[in-house]
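The pair is quoted verbatim underneath.

:::
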Amino acid sequence: MSANELRGFAGFRAGKTRLISIPAEFFGELMPLVDDLDELKAVLYLMWQLAQGEGDARYLRLDDALSDWVFLQGMGETPEEQEERTKAAFARAAQRGALIEIEVERGGRRETWYFLNSFKGRQAVERLRRGDFEGLVHDIDDVVVGLEKERPNIFLLYEQNIGMITPLLAEKLRQAERDYPQAWLRDAFAEAVAHNKRSWAYIQRILENWAKHGKESPSQTGRLLVADDGDDLEEYGAEALGIIR
């Protein structure tokens, strides 16, 4: 199907239809912030899935979303693209604060679970972190990682200072968040903005340089900063990269 071809919808069926509840804050506070269609789909899909469950500990396993062929139809043409975009969409929603992401261990392997960032969702996540696994549909061995809502948000850092995030870039940003201290990420974005070099390639080189030479240590001046595609970004000195304060 071409990019300009519009797929039709036959309309909602007549008669009794099952409805789901959506918090009013979604329309008044969250929806105006969401500028990515995949992220919007992920949040709505999670709300629909949670409406099917029972009890207070309601969640969506990422594996379940990745096996739902109806949902995946709207996330790309190939299985590889569908998986990449789905993972990026849910991660983006969690980074924004709409969802809460945790990693659990089940039978020796890790799984990613998503809760709605609601009062009940936060309560459920807090119980899991305390080791209270009662009421779960799936048995787990432990909660491995939980992302705090207050955690600095590299997605928002990028959007506020650089621009839109593509699915491929989203994974690079998440990897950078795993590789570098949070303070380095904030400072690297600030350095790039200060020198009007608003690109991830430039920020990544700053971080790599700090990791190699030390963030507060002197380095050789006049070194050439080169992007991944080989294009020269800028002649810079240690001070330009924030190494010398």
Summary: The chain is about 45% helix and 15% strand. Strands lie at 60-61, 99-106, 109-116, 142-146, 223-226, 232-236.
